[in-house]
Amino acid sequence: MSHRIRRFRPADREAMLAFAQELPEHDLLFLGRDLKHPRVVEAWLTAIDDGWIDSLLAMDGETVLGSVALVRDPLGWSSHVGEVRLLVSAERRGAGLGRDMLQAILAIAVDRGLEKLTAAMTPDQRNSVILFESLGFRGEALLKDQVRDRAGQPHDLAILSLDLGRHEATQRAYGFDAA
Questions:
Q1: Which residues of the chain are under the pLDDT cut of 50?
Q2: Cα–Cα distance, 58 to 31 (Å, whole number)
Q3: Could you tell me the residue ranges of all domains in the chain?
């Protein structure tokens, strides 16, 4: 199955909602909002239009296979920090799609002049943790019982971070592109 990574645009609204409906609920806990709700997707598109989020989709035709977003607050105290949010369809995990998407969003973060990236996930999402760590992210915090699922069960949230300046320098030292 092939894929193409491109910007998320308003015409993708329904495809994104269909993608979200297929994701295991546990995958969505780190988002803070229920991506299966049309108003959440609409707010996401508005934030993209307003310049607060850069978002890419991996597409196979009209089907969303994965999504990655770089969320930032250019008016806040942490305007130098971006948060990365990555979702990959269950069928495409382990095939390199998440890595491709994460590398693409790292390039955007560098272009945006960000100095640090963070990513949140539940610690039991081992493959996600391994993927982020393979690209230089490191554990920074563990927030106990930070999120609750629909059944009210609490889950811990792991925060990983990446110093983009150090990452770029390391990449250059080894002869790789910055992201």
A1: 179
A2: 19
A3: 4-173
Question: What is the pTM assigned to this prediction?
Answer: 0.88
Cα separation of 114 and 78, whole Å?
Answer: 10
Distance CA 45, CA 39 (A): 10
Amino acid at 25: E
Three-class DSSP category at 167: helix
Q: Is 6 helix (H, G, I), strand (E, B) or coil?
A: strand
Topology given in CATH for the domain delimited by 4-173? Aminopeptidase (3.40.630)
Distance CA 129, CA 173 (A): 25
Cβ(64)–Cβ(18) below 8 Å: yes
CA 48/CA 38 separation, integer angstroms: 15
- What does the alpha-carbon distance between residue 125 and residue 140 come to, in Å, rounded to a whole number? 16
Exposed, middle or buried by CB within 10 Å (0-12, 13-18, 19+), for 25? exposed
Report how far residue 71's alpha carbon sits from residue 8's, in angstroms, rounded to the nearest whole number: 13
Q: What is the pLDDT of residues 103-119, one digit of tens each?
A: 999 999 999 999 999 99
Q: Which residue has the tokens 């995958």?
A: 27
Q: Which two tokens stand for residue 99?
A: 């890595």
Residue with tokens 């069960």: 153
Task: Report residue 45 as tokens.
Answer: 């598109």
Within 8 A by CB and 6+ apart from 11, the residues are none
